[in-house]
Every structure is written in C-alpha cells, then in structure tokens.
Amino acid sequence: KKAKDMKLYMVSLWHQLSVNGELQSVKLCHCMDVSSFRFFTRSTINEHMVFGCRTLSTRVEKGTKQSITLKDVPVIFHIYVRGDGLLCIAVTDNEYPVRVAFVLIQRSIEEFESRVQGRWKQITKDQTSADPPFLKALFDEFQNPRADKLQNIQCQLDDIKGIMHQNIESLIERGESLDSLLEKSTDISNSSKQFYKQARKANSCCRSW
Q1: Closest-CA residue to 90 (of 152, 154, 142)
Q2: Where is the V-SNARE coiled-coil homology domain positioned along the sequence (predicted)?
Q3: Residues 134, 137: Cα–Cα separation, whole Å
C-alpha cells in the first residue's frame, strides 16, 4: 500500500491508575483526524475512538504492546502500557503498518515525558488538551509518511518487539459485553449509541463509516 492510502486517525496518551482498588484511566492529551470519514458520522467515530481507548487502556497489562481490533469497527487500536502506568494509543486503519504505529507510540511517549517529566503522575482527571504542538507535529509526520521516512523508520523496528494481536472480546471480563460497556459509557452520546445499534442490526457498520 502507498503511504497516502494508510490512515492514522488518532494518537493519545493516558494515565492508568488504581482508584479504590479499581483500574481506571484518564486522558492526558490527544490528536485526532477523522476527516476521511463521512461528515455526518465524524462525531460518532470520534466518540467511539475515545470509548475504545478508555476501555482498552484498563484491560491491557502493564509492560505489554498489543494491537487490538473491535468487531464491526474498521480500525485497529495499537497500545503500549508502561510499567508506571503511562500509556499511548495509536488508532489506524487496517493498512497502516503495525510496527510503524509502535514507533509513533514510542516517540510520542518520549516527547511527552521530555516536556512534563513526572508531573503526569499527579493527574487524576481527564485533560482537555487536544493537538498539543509536539503531538500534532508527530501526528502529521506519521499521517503521511514519505517512502524515505518509512525506510528510515525500519532502522528503529528492532526495538519494537513482542507485539500481541488480539480482539477486544478476548480482553473483556466474563459477564461483560462490548454492547453493555458501550451502553454505560459516558464518552458516547445517546445519538451515537443509537447509530451503533442500528448499524450493528443492519450488519453494515463498516459500510456506514
């Protein structure tokens, strides 16, 4: 696939923490571009991506890298959770190279830490920081990677090992379902929940998006 045919939709950083013995996650910053989707579906896609990030960010073990698919949703969530609870997620289409996504994740974490040091550990509520300059620059660089840029990235890939590939169903606890999690989510509006139900019923979610 040509670089221009690959899509990077979102990169976001989160803090995974324990609150009264329960794992939670708070959003630190993000950058997103859903302009390639149909206009009337963009807010729904936006909300579903945030929902997916929040749901997965508490279900991936610390110290692991995973690429996770969601049933009926044409995107992949690439996620790395550090041992100290700092994590980064890149959301791409199916054509985007997995290993390149993890280079983006690695660089995003490095750039973020160089700016905030350890202060992120004190953050316990969602931040509204969208498109911080350092993350926007990385997002743009990896959104349309030139052939020579992709070739240069290959040199960094030896450091990106142990990536697991799963679907979200394998991460959901017994007794839970994706539909029930979505229904309880505060990241998704009622109109978006209704859109999702109708699309699932028609088995045409991917076509609608």
Answers
A1: 142
A2: 149-209
A3: 5
pLDDT one-digit tens code per residue, 90-121:
999 988 988 889 999 999 999 999 999 889 99
Q: How far apart are CA 87 and CA 92, in angstroms?
A: 17
Set out the domains of the chain in order of their start, with CATH numbers.
Answer: 3-208 (3.30.450.50)
The residue type found at 183 is: E
Question: What does pTM read for this prediction?
Answer: 0.74
Amino acid at 99: R
By three-state DSSP, how is residue 48 classified? helix
Would you call 152 helix, strand, or coil by DSSP? Answer: helix
CA distance 81 to 64: 6
Strand order in the sheet with 22-32: 22-32, 8-19, 86-92, 73-81, 65-70, 163-167
* Ranges of H-type helices in the chain: 42-57, 98-116, 133-143, 147-154, 178-184, 190-202, 205-208
Q: How many CB atoms lie within 10 A of CB 39?
A: 8
Closest Cα to residue 8, out of 85, 82, 102?
102
| Nearest CA-CA partner of 93 in 80, 75, 110, 111 | 75
Instruction: Calculate ∠ Cα 40-44-46, nearest 5°.
Output: 110
Tens-digit pLDDT profile for residues 148-163: 566 566 555 555 555 6
Q: Which residues pair with 8 in a beta bridge?
A: 92
Q: Are the beta carbons of 106 and 159 closer than 8 angstroms?
A: yes
